Amino acid sequence: MRWVSGAWVVGIILLTASLTVTAKAVELGDKERGHAYAQKFCRECHAVDKDDHLLLGDVPTFQDVADSDGMSPRALAAWLTTSHPNMPDFIIPANDMDDVIAYIMSLKTPKQ
């Protein structure tokens, strides 16, 4: 059996580590925790669940948000951290943001 040189071993370790970091960078939060957060803090104005109906005039449902053209986790993060007309000054804490994004993205209707 031929042994791999030390440089190859180090290269493989670094590659594996970088793939792990990359995978974590695109990993969303926990959709169940995001759903619980939305039930507690967003439901007063937004239809949170897939089968909920619109509650207030022009307020989008979470389903509508998920199915918006070009909606992605990154776009949703930007959207959630920007003020909106008719929305109270509400800031989702950073430790809950990924969970809410994961929940909303889980509602996205697959394109056929």
Topology:
Elements: H1 6-26, H2 31-41, H3 62-66, H4 73-80, H5 94-106
Helix pairs in contact: 2-5, 4-5
What would you note in describing this structure?
The chain is mainly alpha-helical and about 110 residues long. It has a domain at about 30-105: Cytochrome Bc1 Complex, Chain D, domain 2. The chain is built from five helices and no strands. It has helices at about 5-25, 30-40, 60-65, 75-80, 95-105.
Would you kindly provide a brief summary of this structure?
By secondary structure, the chain is mostly helical. The protein has helices spanning 6-26, 31-41, 62-66, 73-80, 94-106.
N-to-C order of helices and strands: HHHHH
Cα-to-Cα separation, first versus last residue:
51 Å
Which segments are poorly predicted (pLDDT under 50) over 5 or more consecutive residues? Answer: 20-25
CATH architecture of the domain at 29-106: Orthogonal Bundle
* Multimeric organization: single chain
Q: Count up the helices.
A: 5
Give me the Rg, rounded: 20 Å
Profile the largest sheet. none
